């Protein structure tokens, strides 16, 4: 039985909303910005002539992508003024929403978004639409207002950048989780030697405090230096630091608590049985979706 015509536009939008959120979040890296873009898309959809739209999903994807590109461009000055490194707002499994389920269904790791942040807005959009959402080049060209050849070049450049920074081998989640469990135990006990043994020699640590809390203004490199950072936290707050495993953007990660309150969400790249990168999100504004207490 068909729905009353007055509810059909809302139902059509609701059916594709998770996909729109997925596009906007990957483009923008924060839940608030993604939700704002989806809301703007809804307002445009609600005010449109639905009878003249042959394919509602394609229309909504186009509108959402263009709105996200516009927002990326407008945020350029804001990002340039951001204090320290910018990491995405993490999606924590404990904070499920209907959109989150769609997010975790395909690649949206912190490391992936960290690489995407270095792409130009249209390059980022072309890459995501092709490699993540599997749209053909004719659709991408029409959406971006560029030729198919140009879109192929955008995707090729982005793919090269992403491939350059990806781990060489895919790591099963069970192995990833087991390695982080050992690291969590070592970090919780302040065991620097054990932490170093679980890291590659050239491991990197990126920290995002957003100017709200202390964070490193440069990428730290080296197992000794990174292990020392974790040791210093335990040393500064003896008996007051606790780690909890969590899925961070669909991958095994850690939540760190100090005095029972959330202090950071952490994501890790693992390759060949070692941690090769750690992303530590400390900006309190980006931790609202994490469990706030143990």
Helix content: 40-55%
**Which term fits the overall shape?**
elongated
CATH architecture of the largest domain: Up-down Bundle
**Quick one: biggest sheet?**
6 strands, mixed
Structural class: alpha+beta
- Total domain modules: 2
Quaternary organization: single chain
Task: Please state the CA-atom Rg, rounded to the nearest Å.
Answer: 21 Å
Beta-strand content: 15-25%
H/I helix tally: 12
Task: Write out the strand line-up for the largest beta sheet, numbering strands in chain order.
Answer: 2-1-6-5-4-3
- Write down the CATH topology of the largest domain: Butyryl-CoA Dehydrogenase, subunit A, domain 3
Order of helices and strands: HHHHHHHHHHHEEHEEEE
Mean pLDDT: 88
Roughly how many Å apart are the termini? Answer: 48 Å
Work out the number of β strands.
Answer: 6
According to CATH, what is the class of the largest domain? Mainly Alpha
Flag low-confidence runs: 1-6, 101-105
